[in-house]
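ARCHIVE CARD
Drawer: 12
Card no.: 0347
Subject: one protein chain, sequence and derived structure
Cross-reference: see card 0346
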Amino acid sequence: MLSPPPALAVSVDVTAVPDEPAGAGRYTVDLVGALAGRADLRLTLVARSHDAGRWTRMAPAALVRAAAPRPRPLRLAWEQVGLPRLLAGAGVAVHHGPHYTMPERAHLPRVVTVHDLTFFDHPEWHERAKVPFFRRAIRVAAARADALVCVSQATADRLQALLSPMAAVFVVPHGVDHGRFTPEEETIGADRARLELIGLRQPYVAFVGNPQPRKGVDVLVRAFDRMCDSVDGLVLVLAGAHGWGEARIAAELSAMRHPDRVVRPGYLPDATVAALLRRAAAVAYPSLAEGFGLPVLEALACGAPVVTTTGTPMSSLAGEAALLVPPGDDVALAEALRHLVTGPDPERRRRGIALAAGYTWEASAAAHVEVYRRAAEGGGQRPR
C-alpha cells in the first residue's frame, strides 16, 4: 500500500487582503480556509503586522508570520526586500502570491495567481497609479514565476496571447462556500431578520460588489430606472463598499426618475450577503469583464434568478442557468430584469443550484496543492 506524500510546506501571501475583502481578496480568504484544513499541507501565512488575529482565527493550524507593514507603499516595498529574507528562514518549499505579485529575489519556487488582464486591455477601468505597477508585476510573473494559476480559461488564453509566459499555466476555478451560499436559510425567519437590520424588505433587485467602472453598476442603475415601475415597491440594492468609480454611479443616480428606490447598505457581513441573494427577485451582475465572476456562482448556489453578461467568463460559467445580455446594454438588461422579477422560473433555479454544486473550495484547494507540488518538483517550468 502506497503511503501518502509528505506534507508540503507552503507559504501564502495574505498581506493584500483588506479588512472587508471582495474580489481577489475574497478568493484569498476562501482559498486559505480550504487549504488550512488539509493534512497534506504545512501552511504558513504571511500577513500584515496588525492582522495576525484574523488569520489565526481563520486558520488555527497555520503558522502566521505577521511582519508586513500596514501602509500599502511600504507593504509593496517590503514584499521585495523583507519577504525574501523571511522566506529564507521559514522552512517553506513553495511560495504563493495570490494577487499578481511575487517576491522577485526569493530563492524558492513561486506560484502566482493572475486574475485577469484588464490592466493591459482596459487601463481606464483602474486607478491610474495601479496600472503601471500591476502591468509590471504580471510581466515579471509571466517571465519568472515557476507556475501560474489563472482563474478561468479566458484569463489563461489572454495571458498566453499577451505575454507568452515561461512557466506552465494552470486553470483553477474558484469554489463556492456551500455552508453559507445555500438555497435554504439556517432557521426560519433568519433571512428576514438580517434584511430588516439593514432596513430592507422584498421585492428587490440585488447587486453585490465594488462599484468599479467595469462592474457595469451605472448600466444597472439606468436599466432599473427603465423597468422598476413593472413591480410595485421594487427597489435596487447596491451592496458593497463605496470606493473608486463612485462619480459615475452618483451621476446616474442623480439622473434617475426614481432615486428613492435605490438602497446602498455598504459592505455587508457574510451571512447577510447570503440572505440578500436568497431573497432577491433578481440578482444582476452586469460586469463588462471579469476573470471569473464568483458573485454569479454564489447567487446561483442560493437559488437566485440571475442576469449577467455575454462574452465573459460568467456566461460560460452560468450557461442556461442565467439570463445573458450584452455588456453595456441597459435596454436589454432592463428587459431581462423585468422578465425575472415578474415570472418565476423553477427549472432555471434548479439548473443554477445544480451547476453551483459542482464548484467547491475543497476542489479548488486540491488543484492549487497540485500546482504547488508541480512547482516544488520543478514541473511547473516550461523549457526556456
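Annotation on reverse: The first helix runs from residue 24 to 35. Confidence is low (pLDDT under 50) at residues 380-384.
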